[in-house]
Structures are given as structure tokens and as C-alpha cells.
Amino acid sequence: MTDAKLILILKTCISIGLLLILLGIYLHNFSESIEAMGVTGIIISAMCIALGMVLSLPTKMYLTFILVRRESEVNKSK
Questions:
Q1: Residue 70's domain spans which residues?
Q2: CA dihedral defined by 13, 25, 39, 47, rounded to 10 degrees?
Q3: Which of 33, 41, 48, 60 could pair with 37 in a Cys bridge, judged by C-beta atoms 3.0 to 4.6 Å apart?
Q4: What are the residues whose beta carbons fall under 8 Å from the beta carbon of 24, sequence distance 6 or more?
């Protein structure tokens, strides 16, 4: 797998993660149907936030590692 394809996949994971975090926040604060569910609704919104964090945080670290490595390779070739 090329670096460009890997970076695209990681950026997609970050985007999906951030969208899930925003969905969880929306469900927790503004959705009356989730509020009516009680504890189950809280679990649903918390799972959206947790899944979003699982997708976004580690991929940010790995993406940063890849970009720093690529930059150091470019600087070595100069």
C-alpha cells in the first residue's frame, strides 16, 4: 500500500471519528428521543463519542508519524 493511499484512509478515519463525536454530542444535548430513552439513550450517545475517539485519536498520531518520516526523508535527499 502506498503512502498516499494510507494517508487517505487515515484522513477518512479521522473524519468519520470526528463526525461520530459530533453526533454523540448532538444526541446527548439536543435529541429529545435519546433523552426519553433514559440510561439507554445515554449509553448510545456515549458509544458514539467513544467510537469516534477510538477512530480519530490513534490515527492522528500515526498520520503525524508518517508525515514526519516523509519530511525527514525529503530533507535527507536534499
A1: 3-77
A2: 10
A3: 41
A4: 45, 46, 47, 48, 49, 50, 52
Centroid of chain to Cα 53: 6
Residue 34: what pLDDT?
87
CB atoms within 10 A of CB 36: 9
Q: From the DSSP assignment, how many helices (H) and strands (E) are in the chain?
A: 3, 0
- Integer Cα distance of 58 and 51 in angstroms: 12
Q: How far apart are CA 40 and CA 31, in angstroms?
A: 13
Q: How many structural domains does the chain have?
A: 1
29-47 tens-digit pLDDT: 998 998 899 999 999 999 9
